[in-house]
Design a protein that fits this description.
Elements: E1 11-18, H1 30-46, E2 50-56, E3 60-67, H2 72-91, E4 105-109, H3 112-123, H4 125-128, E5 152-155, E6 170-173, H5 185-210, H6 217-222, E7 242-243, H7 247-272, H8 286-289
Parallel strand pairs: 4-7
Antiparallel strand pairs: 1-3, 1-4, 2-3, 5-6
Helix pairs in contact: 1-2, 3-5
């Protein structure tokens, strides 16, 4: 059994989800970009999720989000289900879309520095993998051009939704810069772009040293959705619950997570034994959803 996730209102997270068998089921195209952006916008609005940044690679995606109301699992359940069904309809397939052997990787970002680092990490993914020389060259959907805010109106994918269905024909997608010590949206965007530029320079220097070529947009766009990377798949790698550069804050966050899991385990054992008035710790999501007693979460203002 997997360990329970502690879901607290107001937290920032890095979310990563991979396609089954590492196939290029999210390969950049007009349809893929439209499906991802429409469903991200719609699902985020439905559960009041603030999307800070996203990057859609050919066989996985990264997103940095803020969860004001503690609804992240609901958001992911809806978003991933709709993406799978819409993209399977597009490719004419029925099998599992996401990697069935693992859940989405959800990492709690403890500080604003950690949020910044993961935004840069996500956006620089295609450069770090030597797929393109500049992040702006990546043909897939990303938040790179929307870092300073602003709203993009995205159309409902025609191949999946009924023409006269109840789902609205457009959705509004925006990157929501975090509030960092009075930093403006423009200052945030400039700082992220400068860090991404450093990653581009680092990758360029690595290629000059090793002779590694850039794959290029043409090869990316013409790849079959059934293709997969030629590199060996990583196995038994860490799936961190917490990301924090500060050793002291990281230790405190991990201790708090351990305490939550101990309290959750104790409450679960009692509940199974028939003590149905047991109170689960704050941060419990699944049992709260079922109407079981849980300690209240303080919702940030």
């Amino acid at each position: 059994m997997t360990q329970p996730r502690e879901i607290r209102p107001g937290r920032y997270y890095l979310v990563t989800r991979r396609c089954t068998q590492r196939q290029f089921l999210l390969r950049p195209s007009k349809v893929t970009n439209a499906v991802f952006e429409f469903l991200l916008a719609q699902s985020a609005k439905h559960f009041s999720i603030e999307v800070v940044a996203w990057m859609v690679m050919s066989n996985h995606y990264h997103a940095v989000v803020r969860d004001p109301l503690g609804r992240l699992p609901d958001f992911l359940e809806r978003f991933h289900s709709l993406i799978a069904r819409a993209m399977n309809a597009h490719w004419g397939r029925w099998e599992s879309f996401w990697n069935a052997s693992e859940q989405a990787c959800v990492t709690h970002l403890v500080t604003m520095d950690d949020v910044f680092d993961k935004v840069v990490y996500a956006l620089a993914n295609p450069v770090a993998d030597h797929l393109v020389a500049r992040v702006s060259d990546w043909p897939g959907s990303s938040a790179f051009r929307a870092l300073a805010g602003g709203t993009k109106v995205v159309e409902r994918p025609a191949h999946f939704f009924r023409k006269e269905g109840a789902v609205r024909r457009t959705a509004k997608l925006e990157a929501s810069p975090p509030s960092i010590g009075g930093e403006s949206a423009m200052e945030w965007a400039a700082r992220v772009r400068a860090a991404v530029k450093r990653e581009e320079d680092r990758a360029r220097a690595e290629r000059a040293k090793t002779g590694q070529p850039v794959l290029g947009k043409a090869a990316i766009l013409t790849a079959s959705f059934l293709d997969k990377p030629k590199t060996r798949a990583p196995r038994r790698t860490l799936r961190p619950n917490v990301a924090c550069k500060s050793p002291a804050l990281r230790a405190a966050a991990l201790l708090a997570l351990k305490a939550f899991r101990r309290a959750h385990s104790t409450a679960r054992d009692l509940f199974i034994q028939g003590v149905h008035d047991v109170v689960f710790p704050a941060g419990t999501w699944a049992m709260r959803r079922l109407g079981v007693l849980c300690e209240p979460d303080a919702v940030p203002t």
